[in-house]
Amino acid sequence: MNSASQTTLPAIALDRCSRLYGRFAALREVTLDIAAGSSVVLLGENGAGKSTLLRLVAGLTSPSLGSIRVFGEEPLDVRERIAYMSHATMLYDEMTAVENLAYFASLYEGFTTLIAPDESLRAVGLDPANPRRVGEYSQGMRQRAALARVLMTSPDLLLLDEPFSNLDVDSANAMVARLKQWQHEPSHNGTPRTLLLTTHQAELARPLAQTTLRMNGGRLLSFGDAA
Ligand SMILES: Nc1ncnc2c1ncn2[C@@H]1O[C@H](COP(=O)(O)OP(=O)(O)OP(=O)(O)O)[C@@H](O)[C@H]1O
Questions:
Q1: Which residues form the ABC transporter domain (predicted)?
Q2: Disulfide-capable partner of 26 in 2, 52, 73, 186 (CB 3.0 to 4.6 Å)?
């Protein structure tokens, strides 16, 4: 496939996608197209199905019914183009931030674009020379380090589940600034960056929300441009 047709494919396409757990539907017949280059904020109460949708897009779980494509492919077939950050930071408490990122970098062999650990930390406002272990970091610092970890691979699609939960304003702002910078970084294959994030805190995500989606009871309620 040439790069011209790649850029016209939606970044994310769900077609009547449902995810059942036993008889319970965490996601109900969701149909959705998100164009490459979009910045989408997904709102909804606890249990609305937001995390389920993100996990499907990340390829961490499969739809029970319907289909999902990411850049026109099965999510797992394009996993090196996707970065996903869950509620858990996935960092090792006993290591420093730079040691954590260096460890993950060693696992990312084969990725075409890899940002250096110290550069990725500086970009979220953390000092790579900080000798403290991540276990001693504040929640805000941990979240920033987690974002620095997922952005090391310079993904085309970034999925963030509640990235601003329990953050002070400075940390939230540092994360928003880094996300806006990432959206404007040129990608190696010319695909514009796509962001999909869930939050309870619509205010914090407002600078990033080109489009706002709402979910309730596993259904998608609205899909429109933010005013
Ligand atoms: N592995 C699972 N097994 C059974 N039920 C599940 C599973 N994962 C999610 N659910 C259920 O599916 C529903 C949607 O959960 P999901 O985590 O997607 O919601 P959410 O909108 O992300 O909520 P929150 O903001 O609380 O994370 C919930 O009722 C949840 O209990």
A1: 12-227
A2: 52
Range 8-221 has CATH code 3.40.50.300: yes
> How many C-beta neighbours within 10 Å does residue 190 have?
12
- Domain ranges for the chain, please list them: 8-221
What does the pLDDT look like over 127-185, one tens digit per residue? 999 999 999 999 999 999 999 999 999 999 999 999 988 888 888 888 999 999 999 88
| Lookup: tokens for 52 | 């389920």
47 lines ligand 1 (CB under 6 A): yes
Report the atom number in ligand 1 closest to the C-alpha of 48: 21
| Ligand 1 pocket, residue 213 CB under 6 Å | no
Cα of 41 vs centre of ligand 1, distance in Å, is: 18
ipTM: 0.93
What is the distance, to the nearest Å, from the Cα of residue 161 to the centroid of all Cα atoms in its chain? Answer: 7
pLDDT tens digit sequence for 6-50: 557 899 999 999 999 999 999 999 999 999 999 999 999 889 999
Indicate if ligand 1 lies below 6 Å from the C-beta of 48: yes
Say which residue the tokens 């999510």 belong to.
75
